[in-house]
Amino acid sequence: MNKSIKAVSRTAVVALVVVVIAVAAVAGIFLTGVFTPEQQKRQIIIGLSLPLTNPVGIHAKYAAEMAVEEINAAGGVVLNGTRYELVLVAEDTNEMDPLIPVDQGVTAFKRLVEVHGAHVIVGGVRTDIVVAQTQLLSQYKIVYLDIESNQRIVEDLVQNDYENYKYYFHFFAGGRNSSAGPYIAAIPSALRNAAQNNPNYPNVTRIALVAENALWTVGLAGRPAGNSTFFKRLQAQGFDLVFAELYPTTQSDFSSYLARIKEKCAGLIILLFSGPPGVAFTKQWAAYDWSPCKKPIIFGPGLLGGFSWFWTQTEGAAQGTIWWPATVKVPVTPKTIPFIEKFTGRFKETPNTAAFDTYDAIYVLKEALERANTWKADRLVAALEQTDYEGVIGRIQFNRKLHGLNLALPNLYWYFGQWQNGELVPVWSPDQPQTVRNLVLP
Amino acid sequence: MITSEAAATVLVYGFITSLVYALFAEGFSLIFGVARMIDAAYGMWYTAAAYMSFALVTVYNIPSLVTFFATIAALFAAGFVYYWAVLRRIKDHIEMIMTTFLIALVIQNLIVLLFTNFPWSTPVVLPGSTLVFGVSVFNQQLAAAIAASTLLILLWLLIYRTKVGLAIRSVAQDLDAAVCVGIRPERTMALVLGLSTALAGLASLLVTPQSTITPVLGWPMLTLAFAIVVLGGLGDYRGTLLAAFVIGYVEIAVQNLVSPLYSGAASLITVLLTLWLRPKGIFGRSVE
């Protein structure tokens, strides 16, 4: 009898434990939301694929948070009459570290979709990583808003293979229709005009090219360095390319480059950089003894050059350098200055271009979601193609075939800014292409 | 045709670069020569010194000179503890490489955690530049060259003209014999580790103010040290010094006369060619 009671009670205990575990497991699954249908949560999840420990990614994330807070506070996104809240999830791609392989960006992308359940991806800085991530778009059927990569490679893919790449939209002005190339080509002429009236200018007709050995510089700098349409045009205009060299992304000592530039007495250095070596180059250029030549002027597309962080990191050695893109404080739209002031007030730093683009990307997305009445990619693509939005960077539309920016003028990417005592002062814009304004010699 | 300006540039920059390389590589060579260890974390001490100096100067506003000595002292202590706590316990070479590699990754990730991936910049101590044989040299580089020369001489004096140096050489030559004459090998090896990490830190503090610092700064330096030490002959002071000059001059010559993109490859080709002709390196023991 006792034995049977013991056996029964043992069975009862085991059964009870199994039931408790099962209930806890099921409850846990539902409480943690693993099986909860996304629609019931009424959230739209935006996945940020960014280098989260670098100024580019940090500012982009700040701006995304600002935009999402504003949108949610104003009622969120309304789809078919139902209010949805925007939610951000982020993965660190670490992509501003040149030694990080492309795989890390791809893994971050996959985690955003598979683990965090992102409905849309916002991010993209390093071109090779963006190219790799966009290979997965048609597989996941997810929209990708590229906020910072400076190449038109994926735009070309959209044009040539629309069905597979239509999910990609390029928010940065580095695409086929928004390239800064024509602007960059105009500045040497403007400087040459200014030099005719000022004997203190260096000989700006003698140009040196120093470019990061990265995918984004292939078009502009050419391979080997200097072998591009851009430089052929400059040469046709009477400019002499006296030095052209690529540098590895791990370069820290530029003495040899500077010595060779000085030997050729170049008066203008076109510096194409996006990573840390740009800071080292600028510090070393400022400290270099250029006699008997005059100190050359530096200008170029340097992603970090237009960041407020650049001024402090170069300890003011950036004085006189000219950069694109530059977040100059110009009211390109009524939203621009309020955005700069709000961002600066909250985060104590001037927003960089990644912040501008991300902020606009979230608002463009919000409008497209409401037009499409869904986050489902195929309908969202069609809605994004209809974008006509006045953002902080200007009036935003997309080219239907390329999904690249068609920016109405004026816009933020018009301006080249020169560092003058800690401020980026606009010195050139294409409305007056033959002149530079308020320029100081370095 | 090489111009006189180009030749002067190669001569001057090659000399400065080689001195800094030599200072860094001598530490790596010491570790191998005395402790017979391959320290894959060696490059991380270079990085750690740069970040410590950055934090002290920029965040805590400590004067540069105090920062310099504090960083070197901290690195010496770290090397000492590193040997006593970790390296002493490992006997197998593969285990050694894996463990030190893991430690390097831990240090790198700690740096990312504390300082993020921002490319920070330490203030230049000696701004401006000076003309040397008609070549503009940053004052910071000039100071680095003078300091590196002095430190290399002091290191030579320490190894070849002091009792401590005698103990170090004894342990390097014959461990058992060293024990027989009353030398404590573990204490000597700990001292060598402290000295080596301090040398890595010194090389870092001399050159990083002119550029930017990132958490991966040490990896190319580790490759460089490895190439120099293999070329010079493992664990040989003179060989390491000479190899540093060979690598330094090859790099700068290729940078100036061919293309900076090929300078790293040129150094490694030099190492391969030398080993093909002299498998033991310039002076030292067999690489095998």
UniProtKB/TrEMBL annotation, chain B:
Claim: Transmembrane is one of the keywords in the record: yes
GO annotation terms (biological process): amino acid transport
Keyword field: Amino-acid transport, Cell membrane, Membrane, Transmembrane, Transmembrane helix, Transport
GO CC, alphabetical: plasma membrane
Organismal lineage: Archaea, Nitrososphaerota, Candidatus Caldarchaeales, Candidatus Caldarchaeaceae, Candidatus Caldarchaeum
GO molecular function (one): transmembrane transporter activity
UniProt subcellular location: Cell membrane
UniProt protein name: Branched-chain amino acid ABC transporter permease
Pfam family, one: BPD_transp_2
Membrane topology: Multi-pass membrane protein
InterPro entries named in the record: ABC_transp_permease, BCAA_transport_permease
